[in-house]
Design brief:
By secondary structure, the chain is α+β, with helices and mostly antiparallel strands. Helices cover about 45% and strands about 20% of the residues. It contains two helices and two strands, in the order αββα.
């Protein structure tokens, strides 16, 4: 699904989803640094689930 996206592009898009309130971001003080993103349970996230599943399966 994300094979063609650079790590900086993916990171930017995830940050946009965090800023918009769709995802939560957890940063861990480890070496190397680690970040995890999670669905925050917002209704908007549940409505996007079918779209995300289609994208993950490569459906158009």
């Amino acid at each position: 699904m994300f094979d063609d996206a650079s790590s900086s592009t993916l990171s930017s898009r995830l940050d946009e989803l965090v800023d918009a309130g769709y995802l939560d971001r957890e940063r861990y003080a480890e070496s190397p640094p680690r970040v995890e993103y999670a669905d925050n349970g917002d209704e908007r996230c549940r409505r996007l689930q079918p779209l995300l599943e289609r994208a993950a399966n490569g459906d158009q």
